From TrEMBL:
Cellular compartments annotated: Cell membrane
Name used for this protein in its record: Chromate transporter
Lineage top rank: taxon: Eukaryota
GO molecular function: chromate transmembrane transporter activity
Similarity annotation: Belongs to the chromate ion transporter (CHR) (TC 2.A.51) family.
TM segment ranges: 130-155, 161-182, 189-210, 263-289, 366-387, 399-419, 431-460
Principal subcellular localisation of the protein: membrane
PANTHER family, per database record: CHROMATE ION TRANSPORTER (EUROFUNG)
GO CC annotations, alphabetized: plasma membrane
Membrane topology: Multi-pass membrane protein
Record keywords: Cell membrane, Membrane, Transmembrane, Transmembrane helix
Name of a matching Pfam family: Chromate_transp
Organism: Chaetoceros tenuissimus
């Protein structure tokens, strides 16, 4: 690889993501192998491909254990995947991994899950991608569905038990940390776009005239406008934003990875149409035809939100909250589930299974889970065949800058909205600060931090020490 090509691949700084990773074991291993990876990041050249059955078995044995240890959020997930797939197993070289990571960043949906799917897809084809998806998410799906059913049936939503009191403020502290990590990487124009989108989202959530449900139209419009602004800015002689050239991309005709994927362009286009048709039809059936079916409504809400989420799990929180509270559950139930989801392995999108379970038991959990994950899964299969071509288009990269920056602003809005609803008294604030310091300063993993905050909240609650219980509204 020439020095020029290395420089072109540089924009996506995986090492920066790793520095923010919350999974200590993954980070330690990543740093230990970093020097080795710099000198040997190429997968072995295979003149004859490995049998498909062998590659499917590799996918199973690789992703089954990862589903149980993938704590720490997207940054930690990227570190874990790079360590296992590039450094240890050498499924692909550094450039291919970076390309696949970029695909997830440029599409709506859960970025780390899309990276799981695309890496397995590049190894064993479409069935390999689907198998990796289920293995990656299965532990979190089972636990959160079970918790949702139990909380809905056995816990009074107006009087949560003491051991759940500290989970909401503990979970919100992780959202603040995510916002800091995202915002630190924005350029000036990106920060402006993020600020505007955050202010608009906060306004929608707190205005007497504007309905909170208008977010389903306003948020996609803001994402589109953000992309248009950065595209126009990139055309200026002295742009305000920072734009980097697209990387080399894959050779779709000769690259063994593209051959393994085995999805022709016309099939990718058909898959894309499936996503569009499902999105349009569900909206028409629920909002125009007015079909009264709770399960259809669950699917429509989740599919619509999953189709416009850029930036990963934290961005989805304000949209989900606006749709499910108080229509499906109480505010306390929402935040209790958020705390549980933050402490589970796998993506935060698994939170959808908890929401569906609280509302409509196990069937609701499965429909909500498939609805929220569905768009991201379909789009990753649809876009991979086109990616070798799209990566050559400079304008496409510039548009993604604006879309991602605007999406990050929604995380900032979530910080404000979730703080106001989860931190109600001094005891909650103490839990918030305590958990935030553990995860941001001392690099504790998300599960340990959330559980520690929950324990502190239980100690301070009115059923135990009864400290700091005066509501802020009375101060």
């Amino acid at each position: 690889m020439s020095d020029q090509e290395k420089e072109e691949v540089k924009p996506i700084d995986l090492s920066a993501n790793v520095e923010d990773a919350e999974s200590g074991a993954a980070v330690a291993k990543f740093q230990e192998d970093d020097n080795i990876a710099e000198n040997d990041v190429s997968a072995p050249v295979e003149e004859e491909d490995i049998p498909w059955s062998t590659r499917m078995w590799e996918v199973f044995t690789t992703f089954w254990p990862l589903g149980f240890v993938a704590f720490g959020g997207p940054q930690a997930h990227i570190a874990i995947l790079r360590d296992h797939l590039v450094v240890q197993r050498k499924w692909m070289d550094e450039d291919a991994f970076t390309e696949l990571f970029a695909i997830g960043q440029g599409l709506p949906g859960p970025t780390s899950t899309q990276l799981v799917i695309s890496t397995a897809l590049s190894r064993a084809g479409p069935l390999g991608g689907l198998l990796a998806f289920f293995l990656w998410n299965l532990p979190g799906l089972i636990v959160l569905t079970t918790c949702g059913v139990l909380i809905a049936n056995f816990i009074d939503p107006n009087d949560p038990p003491f051991y759940l009191v500290g989970l909401p403020p503990a979970a919100v502290s992780l959202v603040f940390k995510a916002m800091y990590g995202f915002g630190a990487k924005l350029d000036k124009l990106g920060m402006i776009l993020a600020t505007i989108s955050a202010c608009v989202a906060i306004l929608i959530n707190g205005d007497y005239v504007i309905k909170p449900t208008s977010s389903q139209y306003v948020f996609p419009s803001m994402l589109a406008i953000g992309g248009l602004i950065t595209y126009l800015d990139s055309k200026r002689s002295n742009p305000l934003g920072t734009y980097k050239a697209p990387s080399k991309g894959w050779d779709a005709k000769s690259d063994i990875t593209m051959k393994r994927i085995g999805i022709p362009l016309w099939v990718g286009f058909c898959i894309f149409l499936v996503w569009v048709i499902v999105l349009v039809m569900t909206i028409i059936l629920v909002d125009v035809v007015k079909i009264e079916n709770d399960y259809l409504k669950i699917f429509e809400v989740m599919w619509r939100i999953g189709s416009i989420i850029f930036g990963g799990g934290q961005v989805v929180l304000p949209m989900l909250q606006g749709e499910v509270v108080p229509q499906w559950m109480t505010k306390d139930q929402f935040f209790q589930g958020l705390g549980l989801a933050q402490s589970m392995p796998g993506p935060l999108f698994n939170f959808s299974s908890y929401l569906g379970a609280v509302y409509k038991a196990v069937p609701g959990a499965l429909i909500a889970w498939l609805g929220l994950f569905g768009p991201g899964i379909i789009l990753i299969f649809a876009v991979v065949p086109f990616w070798a071509r799209l990566r050559h288009i400079y304008a496409f990269k510039c548009i993604l800058n604006g879309v991602n920056s605007t999406a990050i602003g929604l995380v900032g809005a979530a910080c404000v909205i979730l703080w106001e609803q989860a931190v109600l008294n001094s005891a909650d604030a103490i839990v918030f600060v305590f958990t935030g310091v553990l995860v941001a300063v001392f690099n504790f993993s998300a599960p340990v931090s959330v559980i520690s905050g929950g324990v502190l909240g239980a100690i301070l609650c009115n059923d135990a020490a009864n400290l700091g219980q005066i509501p802020f509204a009375e101060l």
